[in-house]
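Researcher: First entry.
Model:
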Amino acid sequence: MNQRACAGGSHGQANEGVGLSVLSPRELEVDSHLALVPCNALIGAHMGLAESTVTSYLAPAARKLVATNRFDAVLRARHSGLNA
């Protein structure tokens, strides 16, 4: 696996976050792996999904949580009650 496959990204806006209720069940499932798995490629391998599919779930989830990066998405999800 190359470095690009595990590089983090930046998402969202600088607003207040919202609760987990705005996330789809699949977004919640994929989001629950963020704290434990360092990159989308490995999340995909764990869940049997392509890396691009993981990204397609995480990007809107990050926007809905108003997260600025992966770490922020984990914090906002945990703060809203998501347990990994």
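Researcher: Second entry.
Model:
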Amino acid sequence: MKRSILMVGESNVGKTHYGAQLLKRLIVGGGALYMEGAATNLTPFEKAMDSLAEGRATEHTPSTTYVESIWPIADSLGQSASLVWPDYGGEQVRSLVTERRVPGAWRERAVSATDWLLLVRLHTIRTANDMLSRPINTLGEGRVDETPHQVSDQAKLIELLQMLLHVAGINRDAPLNYAQPFGAAHLLG
């Protein structure tokens, strides 16, 4: 079975930086993962690789941009996959949750991918008081909170995953398969 990995992340999580670094390693070779053929549309990552080689950060990807690059990769065990590495403004992912709507293009991406890679920058997560962070026994306390209610970043991440699981038709009552994902250690290292 040919596997397809979809990368998902909001703004400022480093999708383009990470993609450029991984692409450079795949091109140079010598690691546990390698290119198994020609990648499609490397244009957005070439500029990012040039910036990183000069020690500069890459520019923010505009919110209206969505450019998909497909990288045929394989690992040292002979497993192969198509890594679907998009370059897009992370605002698109944020709008999935805020608008509570999954556009057709994102629905197709979630359905067609056999694996997902979710990028989260933990140190930027806001931890607002909500039902996930406040003990339930404090709900009856008469404390007046003058700050407007905001949904926490943790709750937004959970909602994003639930929405993508739903549109992909994945049974949320069945346990997810956390078995050795394709090249996970290699993608993270």
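Model: Note on the second entry: The chain has six helices and five strands.
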